[in-house]
Amino acid sequence: MTKNQLSKYNVFHLIYNSWVENILEDDSPLLGVHALRNFIRGNSTFISSLFILLGILVGFYHYPLSVF
């Protein structure tokens, strides 16, 4: 595999490098911190919702609708 071939890892690496350069060129140093915080908060909200949905599905599996 040559260096110039695009792969998923290479594309993510290029995007990350570009993002870091843009954040460092900006006047506000907290912009990167806030962006990462929002990314982490969004992921934790998604995972919490997923666990709630999983709990509901497991509840329906253990108690079929015919019982209600």
Give an account of the 3D structure:
- The chain has one domain.
- It has 68 residues and is mainly alpha-helical.
- It is 75% helix and 0% strand.
- The protein contains two helices and no strands.
- The termini are far apart.
- The chain has helices at residues 8-25, 30-62.
- The chain is elongated.
Provide the descriptors you would attach to this structure in a database record.
68 residues, elongated
Reported for the largest beta sheet, the result is: none
Mean pLDDT: 82
Strand content: under 5%
Query: Which ranges are low-confidence, i.e. pLDDT below 50, for 5 or more consecutive residues?
Result: none
Number of strands: 0
**Morphology call:** elongated
Secondary-structure content class:
mainly alpha
Rg measurement, Å: 21 Å
